[in-house]
Design a protein that fits this description.
Length: about 270
């Protein structure tokens, strides 16, 4: 697979030392003003911010609250990130840039089935309201729980391969598949992450990798969780032209020590990386 490195501007030099073919900029809302001083030989991915003005974005938001933006506002801010991605791409290799977006679908309490269905039904229509003709737009699958504002929230949409596949068929778009998120969903629902991967692989363009444990143990170092890498790696090795980025929690610190450890271990376990 093709190596991409997650980065912020301040970590760029550390991440370039990994010789990635792709730089995946993890945006916060202030990065709408990001200026880069040089040009890059890498391809550009932007991971869209999850918050804007300290409120969560949610493209299937049922109502605005003091912690979640309305659907309209969320789409407006994501559009700004798309437009910024296109501008930034002038400093990267000529290819079309990619933007990775989390759909949202968050709730602090458990929602009724009918509310969850309502959210699910909004995804395609929301995405179609965005102007993404000059970017490669990839929606990312969510874990069942997520930590926001120091509390555990529910993610209600885009958790499994069925929902992703349906979306891909309806929109003609591909996805970013986060194996850690998927494994957490699988642990909660007694499903196999290998089966999920095999169901969705043909629609995946970019992978996020980290280990995972239980229902909410996210972003773990390789081997610290129970993701069955020994079964996953041979499948991933089929995709020489697809890319991945490592998402180990705090992996960027100390010049990318956590990322380096993950990369070494996943290679030792057999992942072919170019
Ligand atoms: Zn991810």
């Amino acid at each position: 697979m093709i190596l991409g490195m997650k980065t912020r501007k301040r970590d760029l030099n550390d991440m370039l030392k990994f010789n990635p073919k792709i730089l995946e900029f993890h945006f916060s809302d202030s990065d709408l003003n990001l200026e880069l001083e040089k040009n890059f030989e890498q391809e550009l991915i932007v991971h869209c911010f999850e918050y804007f003005d300290r409120k969560l974005l949610d493209i299937v938001s049922l109502e605005e609250t003091n912690q979640i933006h309305s659907r309209e506002k969320s789409l407006e801010y994501i559009q700004k990130a798309i437009d910024k991605t296109i501008l930034l791409n002038e400093q990267f290799q000529g290819k079309t840039p990619t933007i990775v977006v989390h759909p949202g679908g968050y709730s602090i309490n458990t929602l009724t089935e009918s509310k969850i269905e309502k959210m699910k039904d909004m995804i395609v229509d929301s995405v179609n309201q965005l102007d993404f003709k000059n970017v490669n737009f990839l929606l990312e699958n969510m874990p069942p729980y997520a930590w926001f504002f120091s509390g555990r929230w529910n993610s209600n949409v885009f958790l499994n391969s069925n929902d992703m596949k349906k979306y891909c068929l309806e929109t003609g778009l591909n996805v970013c598949y986060d194996l850690c998120h998927s494994h957490l969903y699988c642990n909660k629902n007694n499903v196999s992450v290998v089966d999920e991967l095999l169901q969705i692989e043909q629609y995946v363009e970019h992978y996020h990798l980290s280990d995972a444990e239980g229902e909410d143990g996210e972003g773990l170092q390789f081997g610290d969780g129970d993701l069955p890498f020994e079964k996953v790696i041979p499948i991933l090795n089929k995709f020489k032209d697809k890319s991945f980025a490592i998402e180990v929690w705090k992996g960027h610190e100390q010049k990318g020590k956590g990322f380096e450890e993950f990369l070494d271990k996943v290679k030792q376990a057999g992942l072919l990386v170019t």
